[in-house]
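Continuing the series of single-chain predictions for the mutant panel. This is the parent chain; the variants come on the following pages.
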Amino acid sequence: MARRTRRPCLICGTLIRTGSYCQTHDPHRSGPEWQTTSRLIRARHVAEHGLTCPGLPGIDHPAHPVASISELSVHHITPIAFGGTDDDENLTVVCGVANSEARGALS
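Parent structure:
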C-alpha cells in the first residue's frame, strides 16, 4: 500500500496525512482531550441553565428546551479555523442543530 503524501495544515503548516488541519487546528475537534473538555462545559451549562439551548441570534435560532445533554454541543464563537481559541470567552453551548447551522452560515 502506498503511503499518503503529507500536506501542510492550512493554519500552521504542520505536515499531516489526512484532512486540511492538524489536530490542534481541526475545527471539528474530535480528540479525547476535546471530548472531555466538551463534556465538562456542557455539564456546567446544564447545572447553571438547565437543559436549554440559548439560541444563536446571528442565525435566527431562538432559545428552546432540549430533551437531554447529548443534544447540546460546544460552539466556538470565533471558529478555530479563523483564529478562535478554546478559551471560555470563545465558547458557548448550543444544540447540535444550531451548531450545524452556524457552521453552514460560514461557508
